[in-house]
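>> received
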Amino acid sequence: MKRVFIIVLDSFGIGALPDAAAFGDAGTNTLRSCRESGLLHIPNLLKAGLGNIPGVDCLEKADSPTGAYGKLAELSMGKDTTIGHWELAGIVSPNPLPTYPEGFPQEILAPFSEATGRGVLANAPWSGTAVIEEYGAQHMQTGDLIVYTSADSVFQIAAHEDIVPPEQLYQYCRIARKLLQGKHGVGRVIARPFVGTPGSFTRTANRHDFSLVPPRATLLDVVKAAGLDSIAVGKIYDIFAGAGITEHIYNKSNEDGMSHAMDYAKKDFTGLCFVNLVDFDSQYGHRRDPQGYARALNVFDCWLGEFLPLLGDDDLLLITADHGCDPGYAATTDHTREYVPLLALGNRVRPTELGTRKTFADVAATVAQLLGVALDTPGESFAHKLF
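>> returned
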């Protein structure tokens, strides 16, 4: 293949994994919650074979799917963005990244405050919107930073842009990233700038993630090392800490990311274009908004109908996800441990069932084979089933 596009519909799970109960997620199903909203209209994804995936019982099946279809199980011990994307790129993580349900210890916060010259507010798991409503006014009065986490392996710092300009906030995140290594090596340090006044704070698009460097070479690294293009759209660059990427562009929204992907489809490049559309997760999954999630899927589906004609005979599109975030699951507002879809589309793709794959890393193994690069991964290629 000349070009491979991987599009990650961030958090688009399609049913609980067998071990979901151990993660507190028994019975979760992001897709079903979207369908039950009554608003889901995704003819292009149905035509591709989304409803034909084994175990998907809430959608109509296509009589003659246009794509290859299956589902991926997560082999890594986690359900967060970093581990999910690393596995898609070939790395299985046998141990979960550290989480802090009781907040961060002083051995982290004390040197962080000393280095930044600012105190810390909150220091507990919080909803990102709720924490700024609770502590935003105090932050504006004192200049102390709002530090919080979630069920994921994250150290998040929220600050008002009038009090801490984004570039200064990013520097504070770099300080935290240097401190958070080893046993405290969280997956991501996240800058969460916001604006507004007490009672009407809103987060801005100036979010920035500072991730751990992957522990070994990923699909992106070997693609780049082979002299091919390794293009990152959205937060892919941050998730991989810039490693293995030749070119990147950030997204302000799902629509912005889809526009960037469309632009790259119109360009002549050779290699990989890895796209993340995060609004499914951040705007609708975590906020438990099945109606909004369904509408966002409808928008993507409409865009997909315009994108597919841009693919040439030597192009492949893979649509998948990195974890679930069931918007209908009221027990928590966190990610959910689910299977994710696998759809392969292209002019030469043979419509076929790809089955239930044992690991997300099968994506990396397949892309590596199709691009002619060597990758050390436990994943197994399904390239032979596609053509």
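>> The chain has a mean pLDDT of 97.
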